[in-house]
Amino acid sequence: MPASVHADLDRLARLVDSALRVEARLTPKPGLVDHRNNGAHSDMDLHTLTVSADALAPWWVEFGLVGTRYARTPGESGDDEAFLADLRSVGRTVEQVMFDATDGINTHKGAVFAFGLLLGCAGRRIAEGRRIDVGVCDDVAEVATAVLVDDLIASDRAPATAGERLFRDHGLTGARGQAASGYATAREVGLVAYREAMEILAVQPHLALGPMMRDRALLHALLAMLAVNADTNLAHRGGVDAMGWVAGRAERILARGGALDPDYVRLVEMFDDELIHARLSPGGTADLLAVTIWLSALPQAPA
Ligand SMILES: CC(C)(COP(=O)(O)OP(=O)(O)OC[C@H]1O[C@@H](n2cnc3c(N)ncnc32)[C@H](O)[C@@H]1O)[C@@H](O)C(=O)NCCC(=O)NCCS
Ligand SMILES: Nc1ncnc2c1ncn2[C@@H]1O[C@H](COP(=O)(O)OP(=O)(O)OP(=O)(O)O)[C@@H](O)[C@H]1O
């Protein structure tokens, strides 16, 4: 394999590692683990997320390597079924690495699933000599629709996980639905809100530039996604009503300007306190924020 392919895979894997750490450290976040507190989690804190990210770091490149084995020649449709099966097999190993590192705590299960698919599809693009851009989400949509169908829509197995139960009882498609949509919420809501916020903040000279501005724009993107994402973590802990309640609270903050409001820290800290009190954590939306961060480092797809 050419050294340049390895270098590209390595760069994208490092971007995942960085996206997870940036997401975890972003403070304040409603209901989630951050510098301020453990959010609505009694079993993990920022240290647990860091230990987990450290353990996962060497593994991200493996998903890209799987992708390189499924490179297609122009006009060839490829074997998506085998590609997906290989990605999921690496995914199960990596999930176990996470559980071993955290003594059984679910720190990054959703992230492993999302970035397994994104890096796998990116690796396939690199080996095919195609450009890596946000359009990699379209490749994920094509590959991951089978996960949604096989695991949920066409499955006659008894539900084994919270996500599977929530599909059976309420038709919620959770992490699988997001993947099958090509991460539409991250791409069309999170990334758009992030870029708009960066543009607005960049022309306000009294504001601090650099990382602080980026964090503020990321928080704005998180609020925008909280207002629309059917997060199965919320439904698991608080029932489907909890999803609507959290979305409504995020909408009210956005109506005041979201993280662009001068008083945004106080507004988000109040939201955080309410979610902690209700024991609600939007972990799926945090995963989508990590995906947004990763996508923000890629060029846009050609129109
Ligand atoms: C499909 C997965 C996510 C299992 O899901 P499960 O049934 O437990 O689903 P559940 O809905 O409970 O969610 C799991 C995680 O997804 C995230 N999530 C939940 N809702 C959402 C949402 N709306 N959007 C994005 N992420 C979400 C959360 O972090 C959550 O903890 C995955 O863990 C899996 O299949 N693992 C096997 C190995 C694998 O395939 N790895 C990835 C290779 S590509
Ligand atoms: N900063 C964060 N804080 C909390 N969760 C996060 C954060 N970032 C991502 N997540 C995601 O949230 C998920 C963990 O959520 P949660 O703890 O609710 O799941 P669980 O342990 O399966 O459920 P429960 O704790 O209700 O038994 C992880 O899969 C992870 O990917």
Automatic annotation (TrEMBL):
Its EC number is 2.4.2.52. It catalyses: 3'-dephospho-CoA + ATP = 2'-(5''-triphospho-alpha-D-ribosyl)-3'-dephospho-CoA + adenine. One of its GO terms (molecular function) is triphosphoribosyl-dephospho-CoA synthase activity. InterPro entries: CitG. It is an enzyme of class 2 (transferase). Transmembrane segments: none annotated. One of its GO terms (biological process) is prosthetic group biosynthetic process. It comes from the Bacteria. Keywords: ATP-binding, Nucleotide-binding, Transferase. PANTHER family: 2-(5''-TRIPHOSPHORIBOSYL)-3'-DEPHOSPHOCOENZYME-A SYNTHASE, TRIPHOSPHORIBOSYL-DEPHOSPHO-COA SYNTHASE. This is triphosphoribosyl-dephospho-CoA synthase. It comes from Mobilicoccus pelagius NBRC 104925.
